[in-house]
Write a structure and sequence with these properties.
79 residues, alpha+beta, two-stranded antiparallel ribbon, 15% strand, elongated
Length: 79
């Protein structure tokens, strides 16, 4: 997996590596060089808590079984 170094010295961590380390935006990582000269990346600590978006927070919470026609009539003021 090759990636390109930017003029600011930044690289994108390939998705396979991010997935393997369970990295997400905001995660801290630590870099080290082992005796063989290989660069090793480690995830530091736990993933920071993030505020779920409004849809993620509400997903799966409804306990009322609405029929689509009934819900649309209610929303349109026809009920």
């Amino acid at each position: 997996m090759a990636t390109t170094l930017t003029s600011k010295g930044q690289v994108t961590i390939p998705k396979q590596i991010r997935d393997a380390l369970n990295l997400a935006p905001g995660c801290s990582v630590d870099f080290a060089v082992n005796r063989e000269g290989d660069v090793v990346i480690h995830k530091v600590g736990a993933r920071p808590s993030h505020k779920p978006d409004r849809f993620e927070a509400a997903r799966g919470k409804a306990d009322v079984k609405w029929r689509t026609d009934d819900l649309m009539a209610l929303l349109r003021g026809e009920a």
